[in-house]
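Justification of computing resources. Each target in the renewal requires a structure prediction run like the one illustrated here; the chain below, 532 residues long, is used simply to show the kind of job we budget for.
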Amino acid sequence: MPDTTGLDISVAPRLTSHEQFIHGDENLATNGPEEAHELLAGDGPTRTETDSLGSMEIPADVYWGIHTARALINFPISRRAISNYPDLVRALARVKQASARANREIGVLDPAKADIIDAVCQRIVDGELHDQFVVGVIQGGAGTSTNMNTNEVIANAGLKAMGLEFGDYSQLHPIDDVNRSQSTNDVYPTAIKLAMVFGLQRLLEEHAKLTKSFAAKGLEFAHVLKVGRTQLQDAVPMTLGQEFSGFAHTLQEDFDRLSEVIPWLNEINMGATAIGTGITADPRYAEAVRRHLEDLTGIPQETAPDLIEATADAGIFMTLSGTLKRAAVKLSKICNDLRLISSGPQAGLGEINLPPRQAGSSIMPGKVNPVIPEVVNQVAFGVIGADATVTAAAEAGQLQLNAFEPVIAHSLLQSLSWMTNACRTLRINCIDGITANTARLTQQVETSVGVVTALTPYIGYAASATLAHTALTTNSSIAELVVDAGLMSAEEVARVLSPERLSGVVPATGVIQLPQTELADLARMKAESDES
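Resulting C-alpha cells:
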C-alpha cells in the first residue's frame, strides 16, 4: 500500500549528543540500541556498569547508573523526566529515608550506611540532585525504573560523600543497601501517594484563597441588583453579590471533598515488598518504616490492613481523580459564567468588567479577551481527559499488581499542578480585579419584566402578565406601568421592588400589608413547618 501521509520519516532530526539523548524531544530519533548506547555514553569520560543483561558505558560524572541508562534507551516516550514533578522526587527521598532509619533500627542495615543514605535523602528533600532524576515519567515496569533511578542516585551520592568513586557499589549498593527491605511495588505506590498529598495540600491552599476572593466580591457586590437568568433567558432579579457568593460556596464544597481524600492517600503498603506477602522484609520493618515516614513528613500514615489487596488496588487514585474532575468541572462552569456576564463590552451582557490582561487581537484594535477564564477552562478539559486515563489504567491492572501506575502518577500529578496554577492565576489576574457595571445592571433590572413576579401577590397573575407584555412591547418600566394603571402607589411599588425584597435577602419586609387571607395562609404554613 502506498504511503499517503505525505511524511518522510527518514528525514526526522537525529540525536547527536549525550544531552540531546537525555533531554531531547520526542521527535528526535536514533538508528537503534547500538547508536543509543553510544550517544548515552557521550564523548567524555565513562565508567562501566554491569547488570544481569550485560555491561554498559555510563558518563563518568552522572549519579545514575545502568538501570537508569537502560530506561532512558527503552522509554524515549514523553521526554518528560520525573524531575518535572519535584513532589515525586521529594516523596521518593522521604520513603528511602524512612526505610534507612527503619532498617537501622531493626538491625538489618549497617548504621554507617543507613546514616549516609539518610543524609543524602535529606539533601534531595532540600532540593539537591533533582536534575539526576532523568527517567521518563511514562515507563514500562510498574515504576521499577523510577525506583532504580532513585536507588542509584542515592548510592552514588553516598559514595561521593564517602570519598569513593561513582559505581563502587561494593561499598554502598543501590539494591542491597538503599533498597533494603523494599520493592518497587511498595516504594512506588507509597511515594506517588505521598507526592499527591504534597500536591493536594498546595492545591487546597490556593483553592481556599480563591474561595475567599469570590466571597469578598460577594460582599462588595451585595447590594448590586441584576437580572437572574435561567436557560439563558431573563428570570427574576438577584444581586451580583449573591451570584459571587454562590461561586464561593460551590468552591467551598469542593475544598471539603478534596480534603476528605487525603486520609485515604495516607494508607501505605510499605513492607508488602513484591506482592504483599512481605518476602525479604523483616516482620518488624512495616511498622518501623510507617512510624519513621510519619515522623519525617508530619503526615499521619497507616499501614494497609491487607497488603496484598493494597499492592494490587488502584481505587484511591480513581477517587482522587474523580474528585479533581468534579472540582475542575465546577470551576470551569464558573469561568463560563464569568465569560458570559462580562461579554461585550457593548454588544454582550456587559454586567461586569474583567481586568484587561493582554491585547485580544492582532487585527482588531482595542479588543480584550477573557483569557484567564479561558485558560482555566482548558485546565479543566485536561483534568477531565486525565481522569479518563486514570480510569482506564486502574481497570487494566492484572492479578497482584497494576503495571500502569506510572501513567496514573503522571496524570494526577499534572492535574494537581495545573489546578493549583489555575486557581492562582484566576484569583490574582482576574477575580480580585473584577468591577461591576452598576448603571447597566440597574437599567436592565428596571426594564426587566422579571420584576413583575414580585408584584403578583398584590395585583394578581393576570394583571402582571398583561403588564409584562406591555413592558416587552414598549420597553417601559414595570414600576411606571403599575403606577400608571392605578394598581399600586409609587411608594408601595418602591417598597415591593426594593433590592432586599427582589433579591430575597429579606423574604418578608412587612412594609406592605398583605390581605388577611394570605397572612393566615402564611401563618398556617409556618406552623406546619415548625411542627415537622
